[in-house]
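Progress against Task 2.4 (sequence-to-structure conversion) is shown through the following example record, which the project officer requested during the mid-term review.
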Amino acid sequence: MRSSKRAPWSPVLQNSLNVSNDDMLLTIGHSLRAWYDDILHEDVPARLSALIERLDRTERESLRDSRC
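Structure tokens generated for the chain above:
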């Protein structure tokens, strides 16, 4: 008997060439999440964090000014 090498998060798809778009998107989404999981949990570099803060501040100020 053949053992399955399927990842535990991998959905079981029907043995068919007719895979629905939802099943395909689900499988792609799970695969991408698994590949990039470690990157998503890394700290943001300090200079990138500073840039994001500046952009957020500028956006908040712009929204505040547009309301007045």
